[in-house]
Amino acid sequence: MNTINEKKLDPKIVSAYKLVGEILKNYTSGQLPKAFNILTSTENWEELINLTEPYNWSPQAMYQATVQFSSSEVIMSYIFYEKYLLPALRNDIKNNKKLNIHYYNSLKRSLFKPSAFFKGIILPISQNLNFKEAAIFGSILKKCSIPVNHASAALVKLMQYCKNGKNGISAGALYFMKILLMKKYAIPSQVKENFVNFFCDYENFKYDLPVMFHQCFLLFVQRYKNDLSVDEREKLKKLNKKIGHHLIGEEINKELNYNSRNLNKNMQID
User: Fold this and answer.
1) Which of 156, 159, 172, 177 could form a disulfide with 126 if both were Cys (CB 3.0 to 4.6 A apart)?
2) Which residues contact residue 119 at a Cβ distance below 8 angstroms, ignoring those fewer than 6 apart?
């Protein structure tokens, strides 16, 4: 494919970007080639970036590229994150059992475009996440500030991705949902309704639910119990009675009943 694409390009351009690729392999600091700096302003940037062999870039070069693409259009950022940044991050973790500081800074920088960050990094990796990756990518979500609208949209998407996991549930998606729930966002009512439906969809799940599912369930009712309708609370109580964890289920029940007592008191006062 690359050979076919190269035939369509001016040989001088092909030569120039292959030379850029050689520079980026050994780049550590300083000024970058102009041909590299104009990538985000060209229509055929993917063809050109492939000529530089991005999987061979130094971590410092990847950071500089992330700075550029995190300031470009969302669709361009998303494609760069998913096709080039994410594979480089995962490969470094796999080979070194940790993440190079420049790659880590690239991951942080990618959050400058939150929607592209979730679509190009968090959602794809949630389908096949190992423990080391969970610790590293999760730390970014925990430490960094994320606008509530992007976090809400990500939660809805993660619920959908969760159902696409092995045996109908994804531990990776649950893990990222748990982190976002811990940040105590004032999420919209529609997202809360989605959560109620999401949990209830597992009422007749034929496999054992992972502990993280129950942890997400508990976090949700702790944070948003006062915003749930009577019908929603009853649904969740019924669900908890049927599939509740032997330790966490009791806490969930306390949260839901506590909320009901408060509502009854308020109704009597009114």
Assistant:
1) 172
2) 78, 81, 82, 157
How far apart CA 200 and CA 194 sit, in angstroms, is: 10
Report the C-alpha gap between 13 and 23 in whole angstroms: 15
DSSP 91-135: HHHHHHSS--HHHHHHHHHGGGSHHHHIIIIIHHHHTS--HHHHH
Write the single-letter amino acid at 203.
Answer: E
Contacts of 104-108 spanning 24+ positions with Cβ under 8 A: 104/136, 105/63, 106/59, 106/62, 106/63, 106/66, 107/136, 107/137, 107/140, 108/140, 108/144
| Helical spans, DSSP H, in 163-247 | 171-182, 189-200, 211-224, 230-243
Question: Is the pLDDT assigned to residue 226 strictly greater than 60?
Answer: yes
- Which structure tokens are listed for 108? 């942080």
Quick one: CA dihedral 257, 258, 261, 266, positive or negative? Answer: negative
170 and 207 in contact (C-beta within 8 Å)? no
Is 18 within 8 Å of 50 (Cβ atoms)? no
